[in-house]
Backbone:
């Protein structure tokens, strides 16, 4: 397959994740959509790494996976704290820091 | 060509599962759809001769991160939300779709071919992908590797401190 095909799939995945962040109101689903977008970025990185004959893209993909793990851990801890204080995972009701 | 067939299968399955992840009401079903996305993404990585990344994808993403999500969903006993589409974003979505389509067209008509690197797929296949990644990771990317280790330690400590006690954050 050509590089263009992988880029199209990556762009479609990224757009689906972006739409998910914008239209869903559930905190956990928003975090899942962010994971989708990170995966789309990973796909582009590895595809370019394969077709341009350089391992740098795959290194970056490894670091993106590690950062996604940290993001998931901290984000879910924040969800647990918020849910314990007021029973809501709807991001419209979590506006304590809103200006 | 068998790889072309696999590519079409993986892309169709990935995109359908991604749409289901965003569109389903029940958070547990969203998590299972996300699992399907991650597994098929590992298939893409195998097609791209990146076996080590594929293994890490399955172990870390599908094995650890997704279990964490499902654990928190079942711990909190979430209810399905009533309405999905937030009306304030409908107009913004329209303009974002136009801008993204423009960007995608610009991207697809531009030439990708840059200067080719030194590591072609045959060389990587000759020494083994994990070997090649290990050599690169512990020589050129050693500093980044150490930084990511400190970052993960900080993330673990932060998660424990945040989730540890209910009155700990407000007592001071």
Residues:
């Amino acid at each position: 397959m050509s590089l263009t095909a992988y880029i199209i799939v990556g762009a479609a995945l990224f757009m689906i994740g972006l739409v998910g962040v914008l239209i869903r109101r559930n905190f956990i689903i928003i975090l899942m959509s962010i994971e989708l977008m990170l995966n789309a970025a990973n796909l582009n990185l590895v595809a370019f790494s394969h077709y341009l004959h350089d391992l740098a893209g795959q290194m970056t993909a490894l670091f993106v996976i590690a950062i996604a793990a940290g993001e998931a851990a901290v984000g879910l801890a924040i969800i647990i704290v918020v849910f314990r204080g007021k029973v809501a995972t709807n991001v419209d009701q979590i506006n304590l820091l809103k200006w | 060509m068998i790889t072309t067939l696999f590519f079409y299968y993986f892309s169709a399955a990935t995109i359908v599962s991604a749409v289901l992840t965003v569109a389903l009401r029940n958070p547990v079903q969203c998590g299972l759809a996300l699992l399907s996305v991650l597994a098929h993404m590992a298939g893409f990585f195998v097609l791209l001769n990146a076996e080590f990344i594929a293994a890490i994808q399955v172990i870390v993403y599908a094995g650890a991160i997704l279990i964490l999500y499902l654990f928190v969903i079942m711990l909190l006993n979430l209810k399905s939300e009533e309405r999905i589409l937030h009306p304030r974003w409908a107009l913004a979505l329209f303009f974002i779709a136009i801008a993204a389509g423009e960007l995608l067209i610009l991207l697809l008509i531009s030439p990708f071919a840059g200067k080719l690197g030194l590591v072609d797929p045959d060389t990587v296949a000759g020494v083994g992908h994990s070997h090649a990644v290990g050599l690169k990771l512990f020589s050129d990317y050693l500093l980044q590797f150490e930084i990511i280790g400190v970052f993960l330690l900080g993330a673990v400590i932060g998660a424990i401190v945040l989730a540890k006690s209910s009155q700990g954050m407000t007592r001071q």
